[in-house]
Amino acid sequence: MPPRAKKRRAEVAQVLQAMGAEPRQRAVRAEPIVTEPEIDPKESSKPGTSEQESEKGWLNMYAQIPLQTRQKIWKGEFIDLRSLLPIFRESNQQKVQIRNGEIIVSDSGVIKNIERMEVWSDAFLMYMAIFLSRHRNKHLELIQYMNNIRTAAG
Fold first, then answer.
1. Are 73 and 131 in contact (CB under 8 A)?
2. Per residue of the chain (154 residues), what is the pLDDT tens digit?
3. What is the DSSP letter of 97?
4. Is the entire prediction scored with pTM above 0.70?
5. How far apart are CA 98 and CA 81, in angstroms?
6. Where are the alpha helices (DSSP H) in 1-154?
7. Could you identify which of 14, 51, 75, 86 might form a hypothetical disulfide with 45, taking C-beta atoms 3.0 to 4.6 angstroms apart as the criterion?
C-alpha cells in the first residue's frame, strides 16, 4: 500500500475512533429494493395544468410519439419499447433494392428485437421523458430500474 494511502487510512481510523466506532467495523451498503412504480392518479397532472406545459414547451423531445402511445405510458399500460425508437416501423414495410439486375427485398432499418443495451437505453429514456411529464415524483424509481437493467446486462 502506498504511504499516502496508509496515512489516509490512519487518519480515517483516528476519526472513527474519536467518534466511538469499533476499529475494524466496516460499513455495509445495502442495495435498495425497487419495485414496479405505482401510479397514483391523484399525483398525475390534470389537463391544463402547468405540469402539462412541458408537453407543449421546449422539452418536447417526444413529439413524434403518437398521443395514444403517450396516454398508455401515462396510465402505466404496456407498450412496446421499440415503438419509441425513431427507426421502428410497426407496419410490414420492407426495403426493395435492385442490384446487378436482381430485386432484393429486406427488412433493413426495422428493429425486430432490442438486442443491444444502447438501443434499450434510448427507448427507455424516451419512455422516462413521457412518463415523468405526468408523474414527476417517480424519477428515482425509474433511474434505479434503469440502473438495475444495465447492471444485469453488463
1. yes
2. 677 777 777 777 777 777 666 555 555 455 555 555 566 555 555 444 444 554 555 456 778 889 999 999 999 999 999 889 876 645 556 677 788 888 877 765 566 688 899 999 999 999 999 999 999 999 999 999 999 999 998 8
3. E
4. no
5. 32
6. 3-18, 53-56, 67-75, 117-132, 139-153
7. 51
